[in-house]
Structure prediction request, 192 residues.
Amino acid sequence: MEQHRTRPPQPGAKRGAPPLPPQAGRGPNGGPARAPRPGPQARGTAQRRPAPVRHPGPAAAQSARQLPNPRLTGLGGGLFCAAVMFVLGCLDQFLFGASLTVYGVLFLPVCALTAVWIRRGDLLTAPVVVPIAFAVGLFPVADDGGGGLGNRLMGLFTSLATQAGWLYGGTLIAGVIATVRKISLLNRGRQP
Prediction:
């Protein structure tokens, strides 16, 4: 038994062609689009597919794609910062004989990386986890005064007091980066 069409054919639709998605058949005003009429030279020829358009990106954008761009949670950022600072503290103890200046200088880029790599929702945790990581990494560098846990803790508190400039500087770097990122996110959200 033959079945008849229940809908009239769409304007611009060709017989035997696969149906178009709903968005593809729309014109600029939301109505049905008109199919372009083939010119006299194209009536008997086969249709040609357009070549894919390649958009070459700038070299800087391609090299930026190769850099690591992790997105850490607040806890992940704290663990990353604390682990890196502990490893750097151990290396400082081994290579430079527990130089607090070297430790402070190495602390600043770790603060910047932590603030850049923390995801958008946890930006406010960056200035909080950085001082904790400073103290964790300072543990192997602090002067133990002859051994024992009590002497090690006393050396840790003394180092925290004498190296407060590095601690405040790193916290300031993390806070400024997190604030700038948060402001740019808010500005992007307001733009239509």
User: Anything to note?
Assistant: The two ends are 56 Å apart (CA to CA). Residues 43 and 161 are 86 Å apart (CA to CA). The mean pLDDT is 80.
